[in-house]
Design brief:
The chain has helices at 43-57, 63-81, 87-91, 94-108; strands at 8-12, 18-22, 25-29. The chain has a 3-stranded antiparallel sheet with strand order 1-2-3, covered by helices on one side. It has one domain (32-108). 24% of the residues are buried. α1 (43-57) packs antiparallel against α2 (63-81). 49% of the residues lie in helices and 14% in strands.
Length: 110
């Protein structure tokens, strides 16, 4: 796919996390471990939304920015599966996502 022109290709692998392919190499971002999956519906869309939110606010798109965006997408998806439909996303605050993202980045050294 990279030979067709995109600088980055992200493949979402559901409960197995996501992969980033670029000319800089391959990066695996695992899924965030949640205690209980209530409803996985919409997790992929939540991942895309969290990812795009970070990229939309970035001054420059770099490999580090894309990795950071993937982490935030992963956090958004993790919150999504913890409750039915939009319940969890309506209840969380940005600080909740930031806290979890920092914890996750320490876990995976991303």
């Amino acid at each position: 796919m990279l030979t067709l022109g995109p600088r980055y290709v992200i493949i979402k692998k559901g409960e197995h996390g996501s992969l980033l392919f670029s000319r800089h190499g391959l990066v695996l971002v695992p899924a965030y471990p949640v205690d209980r999956v209530q409803d996985p519906t919409g997790a992929g869309d939540a991942f895309a939304g969290g990812l795009m939110g970070v990229l939309a606010n970035a001054r420059r798109i770099t490999p580090g920015t894309v990795r950071r965006a993937m982490v935030y997408g992963t956090m958004t998806a993790a919150f999504t599966v913890e409750a039915f439909s939009l319940e969890k996303l309506q209840a969380i605050r940005r600080a909740d996502i930031e806290t979890r993202a920092r914890q996750f980045q320490r876990m995976i050294r991303c």
